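Action item from last meeting closed. Structure (386 res):
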């Protein structure tokens, strides 16, 4: 996202509470909803053959509603990492005000990161393994483990300020693109370390979907954004709109010139859907430009939506204020539902879409109750990590 100019690393003006902060939780809520829709596709639908990895042409589902059900979920991963980086800065600032020193803050964030890695292994992988009946799922890395590793790395980076975060974030994204291009679109002979850091694919029983380097880069962009937000939330939200629109426009330019550095793969054909289907695993510059751009525009929209967030938008806030709880719970709820009512639906407009809504209705009171519970716990309580 485009950042407003800043005079230094330490902001002097605190963002006031209220709708401006609630907009962050509302965006998290949207991310939870579209992510759940995508996972319903995995639990209740036949595999549609879509390919989004760097080592193969990016294919797509020609059924428009199925395409859109997958496509809107692309907001989730960049939103997770960007907002986590932002949240780490806000967390550190609040704890400094409460008298915590830097060592205590880092320790707390490292523990949170380790909990995310443990949740991947113990809670997420078990849900996928039960559904897929594929024991390799237990050895997979996913969004939670990479979020955790990114949090651990970023915990030691917070003290360096927005310029270091912004520069390092872009440098990591550039480095990852350079490494992927150096592989010449060929995944043969890569080591486990190369997969864990840069690429996506299988190494023995291990499946890597979210390599650390590019997603740590997105996290650090969120850190830089948070410094601006704390200095002047209103101006930063306005820049979220401008920057978001510019990134969306940049996506179009990048896809019109597919042979350059910003794409791993050219559009698979001349259709509009083929044009839109950029590489996600690992994220190409074109894919990140569109998804971060839309996330930025949504942040601005929610910052102007006080009345909505206080009424109909409350469900978004309830989901967004217990994101890890939602994440783990929704996987096991949909996995259990799929065992009871499963049939391999062809399209999202079938009963698969109905089960998505049913799951969200089950999750809403659970997330609201959990959000209230964790707010009643001490600041260092492990329950707050969820």
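Sequence:
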């Amino acid at each position: 996202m485009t950042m407003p100019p800043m005079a230094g690393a330490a902001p002097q003006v605190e963002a006031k509470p209220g709708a401006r902060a609630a907009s962050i939780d509302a965006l998290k809520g949207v991310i939870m909803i579209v992510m759940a829709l995508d996972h319903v596709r995995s639990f209740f639908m036949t595999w549609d053959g879509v390919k989004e990895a760097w080592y193969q042409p990016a294919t797509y589902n020609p059924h428009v509603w199925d395409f859109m059900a997958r496509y809107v979920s692309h907001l989730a991963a960049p939103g997770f990492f960007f907002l986590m980086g932002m949240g780490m800065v806000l967390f550190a600032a609040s704890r400094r005000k409460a008298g915590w020193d830097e060592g205590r803050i880092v320790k707390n964030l490292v523990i949170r990161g380790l909990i995310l890695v443990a949740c991947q292994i113990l809670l997420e992988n078990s849900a996928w393994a039960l559904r897929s009946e594929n024991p390799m799922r237990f050895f997979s890395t996913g969004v939670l483990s990479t979020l955790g590793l990114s949090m651990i790395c970023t915990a030691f980076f917070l003290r360096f300020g927005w310029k270091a975060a912004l520069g390092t974030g872009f440098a990591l994204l550039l480095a990852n693109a350079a490494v992927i291009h150096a592989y010449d679109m060929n995944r043969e002979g890569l080591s486990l370390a190369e997969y864990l850091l840069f690429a996506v694919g299988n190494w023995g029983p291990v499946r890597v979907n979210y390599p650390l380097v590019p997603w740590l880069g997105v996290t650090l962009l969120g850190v830089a954004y948070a410094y601006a937000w704390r200095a002047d939330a209103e101006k930063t939200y306005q820049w979220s709109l401008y920057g978001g629109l510019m990134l969306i426009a940049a996506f179009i330019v990048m896809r019109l010139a597919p042979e350059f550095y910003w794409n791993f793969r050219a559009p698979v054909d001349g259709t509009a859907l083929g044009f839109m289907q950029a590489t996600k695993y690992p994220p190409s510059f074109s894919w990140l430009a569109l998804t971060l751009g839309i996330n930025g525009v949504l942040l601005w929209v929610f910052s102007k939506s006080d009345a909505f967030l206080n009424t109909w938008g409350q469900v978004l806030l309830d989901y967004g204020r217990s994101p890890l709880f939602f994440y783990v719970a929704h996987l096991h709820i949909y996995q259990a539902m799929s065992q009871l009512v499963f049939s391999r639906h062809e399209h999202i407009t079938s009963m698969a879409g109905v089960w998505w809504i049913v799951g969200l209705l089950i999750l809403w009171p659970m997330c609201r109750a959990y959000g209230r519970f964790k707010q009643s716990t001490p600041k260092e309580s492990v329950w707050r990590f969820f």
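Note appended to the action item: Confidence is low (pLDDT under 50) at residues 1-19.
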